[in-house]
Amino acid sequence: MTPQHQAFLQDLGRHVPAERLVTDPLRTLAYGTDASFYRLVPQVVVLARDEAEVAAVLALAQRHEVAVTLRAAGTSLSGQAVSDSVLVVIGEGWTGIEVLDDGARIRLQPGVIGQHANDALRRFGRKIGPDPASIATARIGGMAANNSSGMCCGTAQNGYHTLAALRVMLADGTVLDTADAASVAAFRRSHLLLLNSLQALAQRIRGNAELLAKVRRKYRLKNTTGYGINALIDFEDPVDMLAHLMIGSEGTLGFISQITYHTVPDHPHKASCLVLFAELEDCCRAVTALKDGGAVDAVELVDRRSILAIQGKKGLPAFLYGEPAPSAAALLIETRGADAAELAARCAAITATLQAYRPAADSGFSTDAAVCETYWAVRKGLFPAVGAQRAVGTTCVIEDVAFPVEKLAEGVLRLTALFDTHGYTEALIFGHALEGNLHFVFAPSFDSPAEVQRYSDFMDEVSLLVAVEFGGSLKAEHGTGRNVAPFVKLEWGDEAYEVMCALKALFDPAGLLNPDVIISRDDQIHLKALKAMPAADSLVDRCIECGFCEPACPSNGLSLTPRQRIVAWRRMQQLRRDGSAPAELAALEADYGWAGLDTCAATGMCATRCPVGINTGDLVKKLRGPSRHAGLADRAESHLGAVLGTARAGLGVLRLAKGVLGAQTTAAVNRTVAKIVPVPVAPVATPGPAASMPQPPKAVAGGAAKAPVVYFSACVNRVFAESPKGGDHLASSAFSLLDKAGFVPVLPPGQDSLCCGQPFDSHGATEAAERALQRTGEALLAASDQGRIPVYLDNAPCSLRLIEAQRAGKLDARLKLHDAVSFLADAVLPKVALTPKAQSLAVHVPCSTSRLGAGAKLVALAKGCATEVTVPDIACCGFAGDKGFTRPELNANSLKRLKPALPEGCGGGVSCSRTCQIGLSSHGGIPYRSIEALLDDCAVPASAS
Q1: How far apart are CA 324 and CA 304, in angstroms?
Q2: Cα dihedral: 750, 756, 760, 762 (round 10)
Q3: Which domains does the chain have, with CATH numbers?
Q4: Which residues form the FAD-binding PCMH-type domain (predicted)?
Q5: In sequence order, what are the beta bridge partners of 936?
Q6: Which of 156, 355, 388, 586 is most buried by a 10 A CB count?
Q7: pLDDT at position 945, please?
Q8: 405 close to 276: Cβ distance less than 8 angstroms
Q9: pLDDT value at position 386?
Q10: At what angle do helices 238-246 and 192-206 cross, to 10 degrees?
Q11: Nearest-angstrom CA–CA distance, 3 and 86
């Protein structure tokens, strides 16, 4: 660390707690990673929580002359969110959402994930305008700072055009809130010179007819190259100019601490279709016609190589599989309507327009939300999915350019020719065709000067082609960053570039805000600090560090995320191979145990968000290795009934202690003891012991025979009671509910000693896990009459374990295994009538239920039992089997967002995993119960309704 940074850090320690000032090699490497192809490791990372802390950072940066970069989710692609100086991370503490004017506007803090803003607006039939493919991960601050647009918003609905108000902190620490008249008035007095300078720059453009025409022409296209100097001519008031200049400024002019957007309609009636063309020229001419027709809301072009890249995805029309024609291309089209009639008319108009351009095949428009979601999910994941197919050791580069739409076909052909000329034959093209906006992805290797020179030559030619010959945009929506900073002047010319340099000097005279981004004196900056992607493990080598996994990770904010675990492991493997930095390697290894391995839930939720399905938990399990207590695991598996009996006895003692000391005091004592001796930490809401398994109802009632269903009670439900006080059993509610639907449970032989093996597997005791699995499979096969009778699995994680084992051929294929949620939704719900008895209900979809694809069914079941249902975006609660007892900090970290996400008056919650319910009840402040108990309370036989 440099002396300046050491002095900066020492002074900053008086303003920011030490635990949020990061300097160790592991976490600086981890936090310093973004989705771009640049790698810079910051000397100091500041996990800032409020404006006062950011103000302190900026003031001390000026005093000590150290550069500062602010970042949010790190999904940016052009190197604008990395730093080798001070990196300020904006996330926790910046997640405020305020819906205004019945959804017409929304006020957001910069740490809000884009999708969460849309979730808050859904009930108003509105959404924010920007819709980048990364919206489920990207945060509002980064989206605003990069002027993100996306697949459907075009230019009219991007951040610039939907901006209502802005709160921004300048480099000198001054805060301007354009929604606050007093703030604006004070700013006009304190920063009169700055505002006058903006007006002078505006007049400079307006007084130059050629430059004025160029600015207007270039912003008819999507354009994020350089600063948004259209703000200087779109507005008369310099305060409005300033606010709009901040959009797309990539943290180089100031820090956006709050933004208010005008929202846009989110029509409930939507339809999508896929259309294949044998000839690219026909495809592009169809795009022009569709744009002129005005009936489409989004049109995505996918070239031939992209078609080949998505062929491993399920749910696509049959004509997209197989070998496409040499010049083939496809369009993904979406249209919307205020009602079904308008939607049908628009679909018909689009279909008629397309027929003139000789489509080879089309899927027809689908209004099925699941089908449409599949189409668009494939498109959103195309960049990471393509990147995952690159050769190990190469780097994934994505650039996005915009051509005038009438020159789209020629632009695609010329780009493809450049790929071939420079030997990037793996490259492919896709993008937002209506705007002439194309993304191209390729995989250069930066492992030698010759390869870097090849990349440099290619970028030079691309820049001349797009910016000069076609008059297009080198950066349409991903931001200038470091990669296009050397080409801003080429695209804009001397006059416009001088205006941009003047803006940078006006707002950041010391040049300390995100240097070398947008404006750089180094014409080689795009060729420096290129990210190496060395082989680490075949389980994760396909990762391109996009960060899509991070919101689903329960250890995000506690230790490392899946992306960060992979980044650190790559670096460690590289250092082990080349031996170049033994001290750094030792430091990484020392911290990786807890941060990388111990605090990973290993539930696989990262795989559900990863476009290529990378399960970082698999790597973690591999690195953890086999259990050191295999012998103990073997004995536990052989005497499972006695082990569970001991656990129930322990819960009885816990219940007694709570009765004497109270729940909170008992929990505090437990935590204190756990620091001294390795005993489990029982969360506050840990229930008492379960009662004995109840007897199933009789098979015949009132002369009507009932259908048998094998009921497998997971060991966790045989240990923990359904209610907090204990003394009952989940099966009591389940049996009652099944009885109402005309089913009679059949218990497998030796039920008390059966286990799916999940507890053993999660601890690396593979042999014990496999024996437990086989014994359970044999018992279920016997109870089900060799697979004739369906099997009901009453705990979501156990369901996933058994169903995946059967898919892998480890259990008899004749078994009809059903997770509880799917059986209840498909077999029980049609035979009962539900009467809602809860006013407001929270639903938690366990990670295992998500991986089984039954999350929507769980929510639908809950909606039949309550007038209002809320589903907080908590992909994994972090309880992760027994980690809620052994690593309680993981569960607490994941659920710290639960209480704020619950609506006022929410009296309870529901889930389908017993341990999840314990953690949720402990941290949510409301009781969570099983879906069986909830449905049993609300259900009567359909014949009785």
Answers
A1: 7
A2: -160
A3: 269-478 (3.40.462.40), 534-623 (no CATH), 640-827 (no CATH), 832-944 (3.40.50)
A4: 38-266
A5: none
A6: 388
A7: 62
A8: no
A9: 67
A10: 90
A11: 13
